[in-house]
């Protein structure tokens, strides 16, 4: 799991002034020195992060041991003078598993393609596709919901060969890909 935070405004419900932070007692936190990411599961990760406006500080953390659980996290920020500020706790549900594609079927009828997806994913987000033979490679949404794990959608394609990358996402950003070649005559 990658958690990214903008350094200049991560503290919720506190006023950010340029690159300064205000704590509960209205103390200014400036010249950022250290950021700690804490979890209610007894984990803490410290990092020296860049100080300044519009900076980011990212933590790459393996939360697979907590898959399917709800956990809380919060940040503690310290400046070079030792001032400390804490963000509010944020609850997240950990999902580290990829969507499972039970089946992906399609039926071509003239210029129309009927796609039928059978997906196992309780946190389903969407299915999209990208034209691989197009330089733009824009994402096109196929499905944004499932009915009993099934998505049926009909799409129209121009005559010719179409190389697609089908991507299935869950709400945590886990993704499963399949490439598919279609010929419309």
Strand and helix layout:
Layout: E1 2-6, E2 16-17, E3 20-22, E4 28-29, E5 32-39, E6 44-47, E7 56-60, E8 70-79, E9 84-86, E10 90-93, E11 100-109, E12 112-120, E13 124-131, E14 139-143, E15 150-156, E16 160-170, E17 175-184
Antiparallel strand pairs: 1-7, 2-3, 3-4, 5-6, 5-8, 8-9, 8-10, 11-12, 12-15, 13-14, 13-16, 16-17
Explain the overall architecture.
This protein is mainly β and 185 residues long. The protein folds into two domains: 2-93, Immunoglobulin-like; 100-184, Immunoglobulin-like, CATH 2.60.40. It contains no helices and 17 strands. It has strands at 2-6, 16-17, 20-22, 28-29, 32-39, 44-47, 56-60, 70-79, 84-86, 90-93, 100-109, 112-120, 124-131, 139-143, 150-156, 160-170, 175-184. The strands form five sheets. Strands 5, 6, 8, 9 and 10 form a five-stranded antiparallel sheet that branches. A four-stranded antiparallel sheet has the order 14-13-16-17, with no helix packed on it.
Element-by-element helix/strand order? EEEEEEEEEEEEEEEEE
Principal-axis shape: elongated
Strand content: over 45%
Mean pLDDT comes to 79
Uncertain parts: 1-29
The number of strands is 17
Structural class comes to: mainly beta
The number of domains is 2
